[in-house]
Specification:
The N and C termini lie far apart (184 Å). It is elongated and about 195 Å long. A five-stranded mixed β-barrel has the order 1-2-3-5-4. It has helices at 20-34, 115-131, 159-171, 189-203, 227-234, 252-256, 264-271, 275-308, 311-314, 316-373, 376-425, 427-432; strands at 37-48, 55-60, 65-70, 87-97, 102-112, 149-154, 176-181, 208-213, 240-244, 259-260, 437-439, 457-461, 466-475, 484-490. The chain contains twelve helices and 14 strands. Helix content is 47%, strand content 20%.
Length: 491
């Protein structure tokens, strides 16, 4: 019997043996590379939020479930609020948790299931209405600067109406508010909102309308994305402010309305400015107007003072006396000139007469002599010459008389022109235009009502004649801070 020899050596082990952590890491990498970011739909269950602030929950359907985590840094503006039983669509990275080897999704975005369908409907209606021009900027009407009557279309029990009324009461408490109560979510809400907008327009007397509600999910706000509401806003003859949801929410009514407010509270703030701002503006305008009026009044007072202090008003009698003296001097000068001209013309006439007489006598003597010495034909010629000489003398006399008449007429016209100029410069012409000169009992010309106390007897010179009066009261010019000018009592 053979004794068994030593056992044969086993072949080298070619199996790949993984550590657990190594295998879970490879699973994690494979999932992330193969699937990356995905959308997954399911119902929330086993929702937890520990002290770290992260959300841990399970997404499930009828046949399977998937672990999910939503870190605290991704929870800003999270809508809807997560709760067990809520059906959602989650977007995130499919991965594996190495410590437990469990497959999970790291969620970055959440929306309610069915929201994608609503978003498609939203984009389709937005495109349709934009093509019709309902969103055009030229359709937008400006809001009134200070509306007095405001219509509000919203729920009477929601937070939106309370916020709006509180802000309007604080900023401008005497506004007239009309509330059209409607449902702002659910079936039939859109029809109620459209009917309320039409009813407020038919009522009339309103300056602006506010339509909206507080925040909520896309489904909660959906009535403001319906075409019936958009058409009602577009046909409103009253400017409309759309105030739906929060600042990040946009609805179709926001695009159609004349002004979009990020929240209902912001709508109230955009509608009216603080009453004190208007009051300050009015006070500033009143102050500027008062300064302008004072400046204008000062300018007119300075012009009046300059006119009152001019030479014509300060010394009217002296000026009149100077004008009379100048007129008398001009009259004397003109009279002397006329006398001198008449004397010169008379002397010229006398000299011409003497010369003419001498010439005539010489001609006559020559003619007589010629008659005696010459042929009878020469005698006739001499007589004809004598006749021509006489006619020439008569013509000279006529021309001389005409020249004297023309010179006399021109001199008279100069006298009348100078007299008219003197008359225009005369203070008496000022009296003819309705002005007067008032003298005190001592003959002084009065320029100030304060110079004539009550009881003073005055003499007033008019264009024709004069009046005697007695002062019963005095009034000074406005702004001078003195008593009223004098009233005169005629005797």
């Amino acid at each position: 019997m053979r004794t068994p020899g030593p056992a044969a050596a086993e072949p080298t082990d070619l199996r790949k043996i993984y550590q657990v952590s190594e295998l879970t890491r490879l699973i994690k990498v494979a999932l992330e590379n193969e699937f990356g970011n995905v959308w997954v739909e399911g119902e929330i269950s086993n929702l937890r939020k520990p002290a770290s602030g992260h959300f841990y929950f399970t997404l499930k359907d009828a046949d399977a479930q998937l672990a999910a985590v939503l870190f605290r840094g991704q929870q800003a503006n999270l809508r809807p609020a997560l709760r067990d039983g809520l059906k959602i669509r989650a977007y995130g990275q499919l991965t594996a948790y190495e410590k437990s080897g469990q497959c999970q999704i790291v969620v970055r975005r959440v929306e309610e299931a069915g929201q994608g369908r609503l978003q498609e409907a939203f984009e389709a209606l937005k495109k349709k209405l934009a093509a019709e021009g309902l969103f055009a900027a030229e359709r937008k009407r400006p809001l009134p600067l200070l509306p007095q009557h405001v219509g509000i279309v919203t729920s009477p029990t929601g937070a939106a109406i309370r916020d709006i009324l509180q802000i309007l009461e604080r900023r401008f408490p005497n506004l007239h508010i009309i509330l059209a109560p409607v449902r702002v979510q659910g079936a039939g809400a859109a029809q109620e909102i459209a009917a309320a907008l039409d009813a407020l327009n038919a009522r009339g007397g309103l300056d602006v309308l506010i339509v909206g509600r507080g925040g909520g999910s896309l489904e909660d706000l959906w009535c403001f994305n319906e075409e019936v509401v958009a058409r009602a806003i577009a046909r409103s003859v009253i400017p409309v402010i759309s105030a739906v949801g929060h600042e990040i929410d946009f609805t179709i009514s926001d695009f159609v309305a004349d002004l979009r407010a990020p929240t209902p509270s912001a709508a109230a703030e955009l509608l009216v400015n603080n009453k004190e701002v208007f009051a300050d503006a009015l006070r500033q305008h009143a102050a500027r107007l008062s300064r302008a009026l004072r400046t204008q009044a000062l300018a007119w007072r300075q012009r009046l003072s300059a006119a009152a202090g001019s030479y014509v008003f300060r010394e009217p009698q002296h000026l009149a006396r100077r004008m009379r003296e100048r007129l008398a001097a001009l009259r004397g000068t003109m009279a002397g000139a006329l006398r001198s001209a008449a004397q010169r013309h008379s002397q010229q006439v006398d000299e011409l007469g003497l010369r003419l007489g001498h010439q005539i006598e010489l001609r006559r003597n020559a003619c007589r002599q010629a008659l005696h010495d010459a042929h009878p034909r020469m005698a006739r010629a001499l007589r004809a010459a004598t006749q021509r000489t006489g006619l020439h003398a008569q013509e000279l006399q006529l021309r001389l008389g005409h020249r004297m008449s023309v010179a006399h007429t021109a001199a008279a016209q100069d006298v009348r022109r100078l007299a008219a100029q003197l008359q225009a410069l005369s203070p008496l012409a000022v009296l003819e235009r309705g002005f007067s000169l008032t003298r005190a009992p001592d003959g002084r010309i009065l320029r100030d009502a304060a110079e004539a106390p009550v009881g003073t007897r005055l003499e007033t010179r008019l264009a024709r004649g004069s009046l005697e009066s007695q002062v019963t009261a005095t009034r000074l010019a406005a702004g001078a801070g003195a008593p009223p000018r004098p009233r005169q009592k005629s005797n």
